[in-house]
Write a structure and sequence with these properties.
3 domains; 5 strands; binds iron/sulfur cluster; mainly alpha; Rossmann fold; single chain; binds tryptophan
Length: about 400
């Protein structure tokens, strides 16, 4: 069972492991900015996630946290639309991770591709730890704690969302039939008001007794519109519609970012570890100094040698930043040796400078007033805790920890 469209929450996290760069901007942040206007969004600093790989040198984490939030806001993430918070300030993530660990079969974690891939890739780190094996499950807890329906992630993270779905399904299967469920469902129904309650109950009966799919659909639509019950109650009633079993944890969906891949200065993916990034806070001079020496088509040794844009990382930048006319100018000029490479790089330099100048300016401004960002995050942490607590109360009760 998944969360129906209109009530969907969006949740995503980012690891604080250094300065944000154009790769984050084009790959993630622009997407967040778009989503914040369409959905209820929760965006968080995944500091516990960072510890799973940086436990031996955690300094970079504390050094990056505030700057990262500043860069988010500078790039257009609006704390009035989205809830911004820090994972470790919402202990519910840890608690749900622990609870989920009880029911998660080890092979589910061992078979996730990133487990072996990352161990092979980050050979200088010992990733044979309990924390590293469990980190996709921590991610599941991040998502499930908010009953998020949509999780914007890159391709490398899709397997983690898939794990999350499986864990939620297993949880609901194991605990969706707890005693007292029916009473609570009936109480939630009553809270919708007389008329809606009657409609809901009639349609539920029509579906359960006669298998009337249309009744199921209209009852769902009815629930989606409800404003006077909590998200938790709503999910209770979605589960109740289909019988006794209750959807305690909601299965999320991955939202693949359709963003173009931001290449680095050397043509590989832009990444701090490749030392090929343009940071969101680079000055115009730094941008110039980074782009001018970029490698180009190796066949263009002399100015008079014709080149092929397809073999040149600068062309990848033109694909992101230039209009058709400029691209045409590059294609013709490069292949005929009509333009020089420095000439060709200039429009890219101009475009990157124009893109990051306002971000840099806002970031520097925000950095002058650390109190403001801390207030924003404190407020976000409070709101996040409230939302997560609702789920945790249900999860604890479902697992037999609801003593009072
Ligand atoms: N694991 C993600 C990454 O490395 C970050 C992350 C943590 C995340 N928790 C999440 C993303 C929950 C989406 C939803 O990029
Ligand atoms: Fe690359 Fe432009 Fe030089 Fe061609 S002219 S090799 S596209 S930088």
């Amino acid at each position: 069972m998944s969360v129906p469209a209109q009530t969907q929450r969006v949740l995503s996290g980012m690891r604080p492991t250094g300065r944000l760069h154009l790769g984050h901007y084009h790959g993630v942040l622009r997407n967040w900015v778009r989503l914040q206007n369409e959905y209820e969004c929760f965006f968080f600093v995944a500091d516990w996630h960072a510890l799973t790989t940086h436990y031996a040198d955690p300094r970079v984490i504390e050094e990056s946290v505030w700057d990262m939030v500043i860069d988010w806001i500078a790039a257009g993430v609006d704390p009035r639309s989205a809830t911004l918070f820090i994972q470790s300030r919402v202990p519910e993530h840890a608690e749900l991770h622990l609870l989920l660990s009880m029911i998660t079969p080890l092979p589910w974690l061992e078979r996730i591709p990133s487990y072996k891939d990352q161990q092979a890739k980050l050979k200088d780190k010992d990733l044979g730890t309990y924390g590293f094996l469990g980190y996709p499950l921590l991610q599941s807890a991040d998502i499930l704690a908010y009953r998020a329906g949509l999780v914007p992630v890159g391709e490398d993270q899709v397997a983690h969302v898939e794990l999350t779905r499986e864990v939620a399904r297993r949880f609901n299967h194991l605990y969706g039939r707890e005693p007292g469920f029916e009473e609570r469902a009936e109480a939630a129904i009553a809270r919708m008001g007389k008329k809606t309650a009657k409609l809901y109950s009639e349609r539920r009966a029509a579906y359960l007794e006669r298998g009337d799919r249309e009744a199921l659909d209209t009852a769902r639509a009815l629930l989606e519109k409800q404003k006077n019950i909590t998200l938790g109650e709503k999910e209770l009633l979605f589960g109740y519609l289909e019988g006794g079993g209750r959807m305690i944890l909601a299965e999320p969906q991955a939202l693949l970012t359709a963003a173009p891949k931001m290449p680095g200065l050397d043509g590989q993916k832009m990444s701090k570890s490749y030392n090929n990034v343009i940071s969101l806070r680079d000055t115009p001079d730094e941008v110039t100094q980074k782009i001018r020496p970029m490698p180009t088509d190796p066949a263009r040794i002399r100015r008079t040698d014709p080149g092929d844009p397809d073999k040149c990382p600068v062309w990848d930048f033109h694909l992101i930043y230039s209009d058709d006319k400029t691209r045409q100018w590059v294609q013709t000029g490069c292949r005929s040796a009509g333009i020089g490479c420095l000439e060709c790089k200039q429009p890219v330099i101009d475009a990157v400078q124009a893109e990051i100048a306002p971000i840099r300016e806002r970031a520097l401004q925000l950095a002058q007033d650390p109190g403001e960002v801390k207030t924003i995050v404190a407020d976000g942490c409070r709101r996040a805790r409230e939302a997560a607590e609702e789920t945790l109360a249900d999860a604890r009760r479902a697992m037999g920890l609801g003593y009072s």
